[in-house]
UniProtKB/TrEMBL annotation:
InterPro entries: ZP-C, ZP-C_dom, ZP_dom
Keyword line: Disulfide bond, Membrane, Signal, Transmembrane, Transmembrane helix
PANTHER family: ENDOGLIN/TGF-BETA RECEPTOR TYPE III, ZONA PELLUCIDA LIKE DOMAIN CONTAINING 2
Domain ZP: residue ranges: 1-107
Top-rank lineage group of the source organism: Eukaryota
Name recorded for this polypeptide: RCG31227
Coiled coil: none
TM regions (residue ranges): 147-163
Cell membrane listed as a keyword: no
Length: 164
């Protein structure tokens, strides 16, 4: 079943900033630091091959929309989604949109990190945790809503506290 996620930032200037999703993964643990078993959808700001249902428009605007199939993996019916996001300052002179390699999307060549001559710290950005999400199999017989039902639609609001 597809899960649609919309991340947006408020209280920031859309002409100056763009929202960048650095990482999104599902785990069975609420704490992202204690999550041992994870299933990544976005890693190093690039989609993990074969796990996204639509293109990721990352670092383009204050909105990032994701669609992926959420199913019983990690042997659990209850999962948490963890997202690490940052705001990119468009006025710094570096592109905000990550350049993901077509051959290996997990290895990105990030112009907005490389031009600065420094690497982003792995812990940079703010973590947002959503859940628990309960995964249940639909028993309805072929109704339109069950065939392509959304497990959940949620909006994560990233506010001005990211600029601290």
């Amino acid at each position: 079943m597809p899960l649609y996620v919309v991340l947006t930032s408020t209280n920031t200037d859309p002409d100056r900033f763009a929202l960048v999703v650095n990482e999104i993964f599902a785990s069975t643990n609420f704490s992202n630091t204690e999550a041992k078993a994870t299933y990544h959808f976005v890693k190093e700001s690039c989609p993990v091959r074969g796990r996204m249902l639509r293109d990721l428009s990352n670092g383009v605007s204050m909105f990032v929309t994701l669609a992926f199939t959420l199913s019983r993996f990690l042997n659990s019916d209850m999962l948490y989604l963890h997202a690490r996001v940052t705001l990119c300052d468009k006025q710094v002179g570096r592109p905000c949109q990550p350049a993901c390699s077509g051959k290996n999307p997990l290895r990105r060549k990030s112009p907005w990190d490389a031009r600065a001559g420094t690497q982003m710290e792995p812990s940079s950005g703010k973590w947002i945790v959503f859940g628990p999400l309960l995964i249940s199999e639909s028993r309805a017989s072929g109704s339109r809503s069950s065939a392509g039902a959304w497990i959940a639609i949620f909006l994560l609001i990233v506010t001005g506290w990211m600029l601290e």
